[in-house]
Design a protein that fits this description.
Elements: E1 12-17, H1 21-34, E2 38-43, E3 55-58, E4 63-66, E5 72-75, H2 80-87, E6 92-94, E7 100-103, E8 106-108, H3 111-136, H4 139-142, H5 160-164, H6 170-184, H7 193-200, E9 208-213, H8 219-227, E10 232-233, E11 238-244, E12 248-255, E13 259-265, E14 267-270, H9 274-278, E15 281-283, H10 285-298, E16 301-302, E17 304-311, E18 324-327, E19 333-337, E20 348-355, H11 356-362, H12 367-376, E21 389-397, E22 403-404, H13 415-419, E23 428-430, H14 440-462, H15 496-500
Helix pairs in contact: 1-8, 1-14, 6-7
Bound molecules: flavin-adenine dinucleotide.
Residues 17-23, 43-46, 51-53, 68-71, 73, 237-238, 271-273, 276, 280, 304, 306, 397, 400-401, 403, 432-433, 439-440, 443 line the site of flavin-adenine dinucleotide.
Length: 502
């Protein structure tokens, strides 16, 4: 590992604020691109890397659960994340299943049963909405979510609530909002119709399939951290950034407890969600104003609560054999089955992902109260017998660790402006999922844009070509499928049996 500040004829001194997926991937790709020409330092505020990707141990059962990211999206036409995971040699497992729904305590397994709830006219209305929504959002556009062309989409400037009103039936509107509420993590009046539709399409096999990492999702960030050669300073929160013509960009951070340190850099990449950016001081005044405007445009922060229940048995397997189901509790909540070894290890783990207003309101309560609220919301088909619960854990994702309920804002800004809000300082770049789609895929898009722009700048300045990153994202050798094995799921409203009966 190189030491901070070591002189070696370096062309570019690069500071990266944040040691989550984005910060670590930036460091890894920039090392690959620039080699010895770059001196890179990653400053991570907490004592661990990974940010919102976190796999947590449950020592009493000798197993782990996903406290943050639960699923990886394999988006048709956007293979970058899968190629990165393949490049890092991580083993994946597809997420199984059509989501079962719990509606008013009734378990709905497929379109035929949904029809019994919403009626045949309701099904027609839902199908028409999906036909319209998918016609306006072909997979090729979905793969480029967050790019400038989304400004032309007719649902970007309308709220999701307004778009849902087209369904012309309050119950079907409610059902559609509930269906994607956990992924959306916000409420229909405060997000766009386009972001709402994009979250519904996560369950459409023509658009997206899902998978996890066999050895835990934080294998992704650990693999990156292990490959990064540059210093990654933990417990080094950045307090301020200043920019002036003479000194350039200068970062002030705490290190070794309380000692205040400064780092002067040629390029600064900031990978924090908007509340984290707002918490830092920015000077001069023009830079502070530009960063303030960037935060105002992009800060649509929402809350997630992940409530994980460790049981002595996986007692829901017969009723809910898939990897997840969606309940109408808490405005719509996805419940993941994270039992190790498919339940063979003897214990059962359920993970409830509460998002939006319900999560925000509940987050003021104690862990015990939140766990009690989730247990009270358990479908009556799944009675929790005395003594079967070992423990409940609450992971709170709020403020600087929440997600954006309207990534990119409205309208989407041109990419150079989105990434570098002060045109005087193009070498100060912001990177993160909140700029594109609130997922790892969007964070990856943001990283690729930022490192390509930086690489081009170094090329121009030094007159020497930089190494491209395309080999890291190259298509796999022929004969190997580039996509996750497609899951057996079919999206709702595509069920042939039910459609044929009409
Ligand atoms: C509960 C939850 C579930 C999610 N589920 C999924 C999912 O299933 N699939 C998916 O694709 N995406 C999911 N996401 C989104 C995903 O987590 C993010 O897209 C991704 O983790 C973004 O990584 P990042 O590095 O940009 O940000 P972060 O992971 O937030 O990393 C930022 C880092 O900066 C550090 N930091 C903060 N302030 C400072 C400071 N002042 N100085 C230095 N360092 C600082 C933080 O400690 C953190 O390590 C989920 C998010 C949450 C909260």
């Amino acid at each position: 590992m190189r030491e901070v500040g070591e002189e070696c004829g370096v062309a570019e001194r690069i500071g990266i604020i944040g040691g989550g997926f984005s910060g670590l991937l930036c460091a890894y790709l920039l090392e690959h691109m620039l080699g010895d020409r770059a001196e890179i330092v990653v400053l991570e505020g907490s004592d661990r890397v990974g940010g919102r990707v976190r796999t947590t141990q449950l020592p009493e059962a000798g197993v782990s659960y996903e406290a943050g990211v639960a699923e990886f999206y394999d988006i048709t036409g956007n293979p970058h994340l899968r190629r990165l995971i393949r490049h890092l040699g991580l083993e994946t497992r597809p997420l199984r299943g059509t989501p079962y729904f719990v509606i008013d305590d009734r378990v709905v397994h497929d379109d035929l049963e949904l029809e019994q709830v919403v009626g045949s006219r309701g099904m027609d209305r839902l199908r028409r909405f999906w036909e319209h929504g998918t016609a306006l959002r072909p997979p090729a556009d979905y793969a480029l979510a967050g790019q400038m062309r989304d400004n032309d989409h007719p649902w970007l400037r309308r709220t999701f609530e307004d778009v849902l009103a087209e369904i012309d039936d309050p119950f079907c509107q409610w059902f559609t909002a509930m269906q994607c509420h956990s992924d959306l993590a916000t409420e229909p009046p405060v997000t766009s119709g386009l972001f709402g539709m994009d979250n519904l399409l996560i369950d459409h096999p023509g658009y997206c399939s899902m998978y996890t990492l066999v050895d835990g999702n934080d294998g992704l960030v650990q693999a990156l951290a292990n490959r990064v050669q540059s210093p990654i300073l933990r417990s080094a929160p950045v307090a301020s950034v200043s920019a002036d013509a003479e000194r350039g960009l200068c970062v002030t951070f705490r290190a070794d407890g309380d000692e205040r340190s400064e780092l002067e850099v040629d390029t600064l990449i900031v990978t924090l969600p908007p509340p984290g950016i707002r918490a830092m001081q920015w000077s001069d005044d023009r830079l502070a104003a530009a960063v303030g405007e960037h935060v105002r445009h992009h800060d649509h922060g929402t809350t997630y609560l992940r409530v994980t229940l460790l049981f002595r048995r996986r007692f829901w397997r017969r009723q809910f054999p898939e990897d997840y189901f969606v309940s109408d509790a808490f405005g719509g909540v996805t419940v993941y089955d994270q039992s190790p070894d498919d339940g063979a290890a003897g214990v059962g783990i359920q993970s409830w992902l509460l998002g939006g207003a319900h999560a925000r309101d509940l987050s003021a309560r104690s862990d015990d109260e939140i766990v009690a609220a989730v247990l009270a919301a358990m479908p009556s088909a799944l009675p929790v017998r005395d003594g079967v619960l070992v423990r409940g854990c609450v992971d709170r994702w709020t403020g600087a660790s929440g997600v954006s309920g309207l990534p990119g804002g409205v309208p989407l800004l041109p990419l150079d402006q989105r990434h570098s809000p002060d045109p005087r300082w193009p070498q100060l770049q912001f990177v993160g999922d909140y700029l594109y789609d609130s997922t790892l895929c969007g964070a990856l898009d943001a990283v690729l844009y930022a490192v390509a722009r930086l690489g081009a700048r170094v090329e121009v300045r030094t007159g020497e070509p930089v190494v491209g990153v395309s080999d890291l994202f190259a298509a796999p050798a022929s004969g190997i499928s580039d996509l996750a094995p497609s899951s057996p799921s079919s999206a709702f409203f595509l069920d042939e049996r039910s459609a044929n009966r009409r």
